[in-house]
Amino acid sequence: MSDKYADGTAEASLYGGPSIKRVRIAHLREAKERGERWPMLTSYDQYSAAVFDEIGIPVLLVGDSAANNVYGYDTTLRVDLDEMLPLVKAVTRATSRALVVADLPFGTYEAGPAQALESSVRLMKEGGAQAVKLEGGQRMRPQIEALTHAGIPVMAHIGFTPQSEHMLGGYRVQGRGEAADSLVADARAVCEAGAFAVVLEMVPGQVAKRITHELAIPTVGIGAGPDCDAQVLVWQDMAGLRPGRTPRFVKRYADLNTVLGKAARAFADEVTSGAFPAAEHTFQQ
Ligand SMILES: Nc1nc(=O)c2c([nH]1)NC[C@@H]1CN(c3ccc(C(=O)N[C@@H](CCC(=O)O)C(=O)O)cc3)CN21
Ligand SMILES: CC(C)C(=O)C(=O)O
Ligand SMILES: [Mg+2]
């Protein structure tokens, strides 16, 4: 593609590109046409959002994984809209360039288009989100169509959908063998219904590749191999803040858990020893 942007660059890069003031869904479609891959991270708070926005992560997701990574629930099924909204507000206030997508929590859209619309309007009107994400393929057609017609961009999410873990029989790869065709049908359905992008979670790399080539909209992989248009990770997994065993699809790019633990240990030791606060931290009369 040779679209000319305002600053005259012929091929504006989405990732950290200087010519895009605010990432919009059309930019993501154009990036796909250019064959340009892009990153997405979750964010649930002001400082992580500001860092990711500043370094040029084009899309931030206020995921319902906040259930696990903010609120300490054992499953995403537990989080509700009233818990999600303050996090969405924090992330949208802290960003100026990234497109902010908010997850619709379990139980806030399944009943039908009217419920999906009501919940999405709250995420956008109160939270300031620029798009919403929901889980499900063919069965979510009516919701995706209604939201899209109401002017709300929808990111779909198929494959392993954590909100359906009890139906799917746990955290497992979806779309293996025979099931590949129904996954492809889900991808086609969300695209036809008007979704602007689709998350593929824990699906075989070959199936993700086939879907990515077939669809005009970007695919966002998490445990879906290298051939997706974009990749997403939970930020505390990516930065090594979350302790313990991580899913196979995670790569840790830092060890924030150790860094933060060391800082807190040093602070604690200096308080105990009396080394902190020193003169420079102390006001004089
Ligand atoms: N911190 C965090 N990271 C995530 O990726 C994430 C969340 N939270 N919360 C919501 C969902 C739940 N997700 C998960 C959670 C665990 C596995 C997991 O344990 N996977 C194992 C088993 C796979 C298998 O048995 O086939 C793995 O090794 O990948 C996968 C996805 C993805 N999402
Ligand atoms: C992992 C991503 C895709 C997600 O849905 C979440 O963080 O809630
Ligand atoms: Mg989610």
From TrEMBL:
GO biological process, alphabetically ordered: pantothenate biosynthetic process
Record key words, sorted: Cytoplasm, Magnesium, Metal-binding, Pantothenate biosynthesis, Transferase
Reaction(s) catalysed by this chain's protein: (6R)-5,10-methylene-5,6,7,8-tetrahydrofolate + 3-methyl-2-oxobutanoate + H2O = 2-dehydropantoate + (6S)-5,6,7,8-tetrahydrofolate
Entry GO CC: cytoplasm
Residues annotated for Mg(2+) binding in this entry: 64, 103, 135
Signal sequence residues: none
Record flagged with keyword Cytoplasm: yes
Recorded GO MF terms: 3-methyl-2-oxobutanoate hydroxymethyltransferase activity; magnesium ion binding
Cofactor annotation remark: Binds 1 Mg(2+) ion per subunit.
E.C. numbers: 2.1.2.11
Location of the active site: 201
Cofactor section: Mg(2+)
Top-level taxon of the source organism: Bacteria
SUPFAM superfamilies: Phosphoenolpyruvate/pyruvate domain
First-level EC class: transferase
Keyword Secreted: no
Location, primary (coarse class): cytoplasm
Family that this chain belongs to: Belongs to the PanB family.
Quaternary structure and interacting proteins, as annotated: Homodecamer; pentamer of dimers.
Function: Catalyzes the reversible reaction in which hydroxymethyl group from 5,10-methylenetetrahydrofolate is transferred onto alpha-ketoisovalerate to form ketopantoate.
Protein's name according to its UniProt entry: 3-methyl-2-oxobutanoate hydroxymethyltransferase
Organism: Actinocatenispora rupis
Lineage: Bacteria, Bacillati, Actinomycetota, Actinomycetes, Micromonosporales
Gene this chain is encoded by: panB
